[in-house]
């Protein structure tokens, strides 16, 4: 309170009171309003009790919490009303509800998944899907997410499933590079989560397709549009002919892009393709070798494709 208003200028009384509702400073002695519409710069607190006279605990207005944290109580700061007259002399005390181990674990998981999604350069829809799926996995008794080893595998698995289901497919190898979890262990965890039926879907889970990788790989390699246009039907032909049977979709995409880039005068080295696609250089060469054996058939309709 300003010193000039420590006493009433009308009667000289120092018995002054602040009316926070109206923002006024009033003298108890003579009733003089010394200040009108005074601004209170103290923290704002809202009382959610049905009757203010019951002195219900007050809660700070804040951002809504993510229900996927699995909270039984809110984690907002709140004001505790005094239990006795003696304790009412001091300022109200702010308290915080303690976080359960589940909340701490899920918060850490949500943050980790968002960071991984940033590293993978996928959109918010993928991150949100991954977070929702992680919360379901954490809630299930089949998975001990509290264990550090399981936690890392679950992160990688739900990321793979989120990317795949949201149309931003990433390979197991790409997830291994980002998370540090072996790709075979990621695949095993994906299978376990899938069998647990934690995702509501009408049919079977979508499978990764070679076409899902083409556009992104071509873009990352800064290839011309015609390379991607030609690569797509080449993949389709190679698949129908059984040339690359048994090869992983992202490996097929890498091999096709390697030979089509050279065909369209936009050649990229094996090392460049390997780095962008997370496919080993030797695998890129093997797939390219298989494709080159049938190159005449694969590229037979290229001119028609370009004209179309």
From TrEMBL:
PROSITE patterns given in the database record: ZF_TFIIB
A Pfam family that the UniProt record links to this protein: TFIIB
InterPro entries according to UniProt: Cyclin-like_dom, Cyclin-like_sf, TFIIB, TFIIB_cyclin, Znf_TFIIB
GO cellular component: nucleus; transcription preinitiation complex
Domain TFIIB-type: start-end pairs: 4-35
Source domain of life: Eukaryota
Alphabetized GO MF terms: TBP-class protein binding; zinc ion binding
This protein's UniProt keywords: Metal-binding, Repeat, Transcription, Transcription regulation, Zinc, Zinc-finger
Coiled coil (UniProt feature): none
Transcription regulation in keyword set: yes
GO biological process terms, semicolon-separated: transcription preinitiation complex assembly
Similarity annotation: Belongs to the TFIIB family.
Protein name as it appears in the record: General transcription factor TFIIB
Lineage: Eukaryota, Sar, Stramenopiles, Oomycota, Saprolegniomycetes
């Amino acid at each position: 309170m300003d010193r000039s208003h420590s006493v009433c200028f009308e009667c000289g009384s120092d018995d002054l009171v602040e009316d926070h509702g109206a923002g006024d400073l009033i003298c108890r002695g003579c009733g003089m309003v010394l200040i009108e519409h005074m601004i209170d710069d103290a923290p704002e607190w809202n009382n959610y009790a049905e009757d203010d006279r019951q002195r219900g605990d007050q809660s700070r207005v804040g951002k809504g919490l993510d229900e996927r944290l699995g909270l039984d109580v809110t984690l907002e700061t709140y004001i505790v009303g005094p239990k006795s007259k003696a304790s009412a002399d001091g300022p109200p005390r702010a308290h915080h509800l303690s976080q359960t181990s589940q909340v701490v674990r899920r918060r850490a998981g949500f943050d980790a998944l968002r960071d991984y999604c940033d590293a993978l350069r996928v959109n918010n829809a993928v991150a949100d899907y991954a977070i929702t799926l992680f919360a379901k996995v954490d809630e299930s008794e089949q998975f001990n997410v509290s264990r550090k080893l399981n936690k890392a595998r679950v992160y990688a698995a739900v990321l793979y499933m989120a990317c795949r289901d949201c149309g931003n497919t990433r390979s197991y190898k790409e997830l291994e590079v980002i998370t540090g979890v072996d790709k075979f262990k990621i695949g095993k965890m994906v299978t376990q989560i899938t069998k647990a039926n934690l995702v509501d879907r009408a049919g079977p889970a979508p499978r990764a397709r070679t076409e899902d990788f083409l556009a992104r790989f071509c873009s990352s390699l800064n290839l011309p549009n015609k390379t991607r246009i030609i690569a797509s039907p080449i993949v389709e032909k190679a698949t129908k002919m059984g040339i690359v049977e048994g090869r992983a979709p992202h490996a097929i995409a890498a091999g096709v892009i390697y030979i089509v880039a050279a065909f369209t005068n936009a050649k990229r080295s094996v090392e460049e393709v390997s780095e962008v696609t997370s496919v080993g250089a030797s695998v890129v060469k093997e797939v390219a070798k298989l494709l080159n054996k049938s190159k005449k058939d694969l590229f037979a309709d290229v001119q028609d494709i370009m004209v179309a």
